[in-house]
């Protein structure tokens, strides 16, 4: 907040001249004693933090979440404890593969990262606009992302790498079908759903647990963008989605989403027809219908993009009492990846920045580190256990105990049907949607340099649905598979 109009140095002293550097005479050279100029130039050199390694381009907004349905029989999470309860939140919506300045209207999943500032600490739900993912084991993530990024030699996007990886990772088929379909390019960020994608665990006050999946259903309705318009906008207005969200909120057209959940009894996970923790699969809505939780409304734009959006740090491991993780092997890897990324990208004390810090009190024995800009615990006790009345643990907040067992080995999930749900998604589409899907795939696969890669991928489409595989093969002018290997 400025209270007067006086320009000052970083150290608060008034600046005498901000237009002319100090020189020896009007011609110069410039004098090194112009410390104000040196500070300006040096600070400018440090204006960028590294962009996110994925999800670099994004738009953010503030809002609130309001509970509309009592689900306390499933979770003791405080922010869900009462119908009508409102919790402030911040959202960041992003593309995945492109750089910070890349176009918004590309075919890509959209990140859907929500930070709830609950009275019992922050809760981050770091999902996408798709209910599934390309891979199901965190160990494959860096390889997968390499294929989505630029080729190290040409510095160009590399369709051969993309389809080579996907064709060798058939678990990607469901998400590839989703991405290549109409939903691969949303009309705006307001017209898409968000999903937690993974399975999480809710625990109630009696210590009873359930598995849960989150669905944010857009109240604006799902709308997608025609590929030709998307291509045109990518050139004419690469920030189209960012601008649309900002303007909608600025004009008082507050976008909202209805949060729904699917609830699965814990024991069903042992007998369900596939592994419910496998993030390449959706749970049938017939088996586990959607149950309403509440409404999320975005009603305030950030005041400062860097402070609030660029410095926002979300992690699927930022949880509150009543909400825990599941054994999902992607989610488990993500529990490491995010805050590790933040410590590198923003700094060791990223959690204390205004956009990230909880609205409730933070009390622990962590101290020091670069850029410790709060009081650093002052003179209070800095170790535990102690005899000086420092903060102590809250045993009733311990996660409910649960049984795990198994032989330690590097092994995939037991269930390896990558085709049924991808085929179901294809069969759900109208003839027109299928035609657009095939068109998009054929366009994307044409530049692939090797036919064996294309044929391997066609086999996967064929296994999902023979018509699907046949149409892609025909579109690419390649042999239709006669049988599936
Ligand atoms: C961002 C890693 C899977 C959604 C990121 C970032 C990393 C990362 C390092 C950048 C964080 C930052 O610098 O702030 C991983 C790894 C994954 C994985 C290792 C797999 C094991 C997923 C999945 C989803 C997802 C499955 C969605 C269901 C997001 C979102 C962001 C993000 C939304 C952007 C968050 C923001 O807006 O700041 N991921 N990711 N990621 N990831 Fe993942």
From TrEMBL:
GO MF annotations, alphabetized: catalase activity
KW Iron (keyword) present: yes
TM stretches of this protein: none
Catalytic activity: 2 H2O2 = O2 + 2 H2O
Catalase core domain boundaries: 8-392
UniProt keyword annotations, A-Z: Heme, Hydrogen peroxide, Iron, Metal-binding, Oxidoreductase, Peroxidase
Location of region: Disordered: 1-26
EC number(s) stated in the UniProt entry for this protein: 1.11.1.6
Pfam families referenced in this protein's UniProt entry, alphabetically: Catalase (PF00199), Catalase-rel (PF06628)
Coiled coil: none
Extent of Polar residues compositional bias: 1-24
Family: Belongs to the catalase family.
Protein name: Catalase
